[in-house]
Amino acid sequence: MTPSTPDTSPVLTALPPRRRWREVLLAPALFLAVAFGLISLAMATGWEETLTQIAKLGWLQILVLFALSLVNYLLRGLRWHIFARRMNLRVSILQSLRHFLGGFAMSVTPGRLGELIRLRWIARECGGRPERSAPLVLIDRASDLAAMAIILALSLSQSMGGHTIAAPVAAIALLLAIVVTRPKLLTGLIKATWKLIGRKPRFFARLRSMARSLSLFTSAAVLLPTLSLGLLGWIAEGYAFWLLLDWFGANVPFWKAVGIFTLATLAGGLTGAPGGVGGAEAAMIALLSLEGFGPGLSVPATIIIRVTTLWFAIIIGLLIFPLAEKKSRKTQLNS
């Protein structure tokens, strides 16, 4: 193993220990704020109906929802591993899953920047500076955008023609994915932005270097399997949402349910809110209302699916986070 370097890079110094734990504490604060809003809406529109809907679910059904979310996380974790190995990072599949899942603890940091903690762990365990593995974050996010844009396009073609907002959101997501996975195009945009701003040349030089390194992931041998993993993962969560609506007695076609879930998730992410919290919930309730479902169904459906997807991921991340920190520090000390 190559000798590890001190944690002195901008990526790491941007997340000192005290601030990192403040970012972790942001999760329960956001959860309480959004939960208060949803509970208030449920009370204002019929608390009894909301409780009645939630009471329809048994423990087995809840476990199925959690299991489908776990399928999504594991498939995307495998995708992360493929990208890491493509960059010649000496990580095992267990290390990659530990890094990927542990990063979920920071999902509700602004812009999900806290997930850059994964780069700290990789740097400690593989040596070198975090900038070496920084393209992982870009390609991982771009792969999610591409997969979700394709799913939304499929949903539009099948049964979401009435949701006029779906088309522009899908187009934006796909456009962003194309830009991030086209090194020359991304490098050109970074250069044009630097010329417009005229400041921080070293920062933009690092961005250009990261953009050029994305050429590692543009071959069909890499894009096809990783895109497939992303598609299967996100469809698994969309399927969970369809099951949930069916258990609540809502007769919603499969692709429409998947489209509503994907559109709400994308809309929440595009707002820039940490983890899409607030925006995704509002979008999901609004989209269900367009289908004719009142708060008595849309609110409990939104609460359950968000708990079994986003907040389940954060809980997993919080459980794995200390282990990932301990393992990476131990490897760093022994190298």
- Assembly annotation: single chain
Secondary-structure-based class equals: mainly alpha
How many individual helices?
13
The percent range for strand residues is: under 5%
Q: Report how far apart the termini are.
A: 7 Å
Would you identify the regions where 5 or more consecutive residues have pLDDT less than 50? Answer: 1-15
Give average pLDDT, whole number: 78
Task: Report the sheet with the most strands, covering strand number, pairing sense and barrel closure.
Answer: none
Number of domains: 1
In total, how many beta strands? 0
What is the string of helix and strand elements? HHHHHHHHHHHHH
State Rg: 20 Å
Principal-axis shape:
globular
Give the fraction of residues assigned to helices.
over 70%
Transmembrane segments: 24-45, 57-75, 162-181, 214-236, 303-324
Pfam families: LPG_synthase_TM (PF03706)
InterPro entries: L-PG_synthase/AglD
Subcellular location: Cell membrane
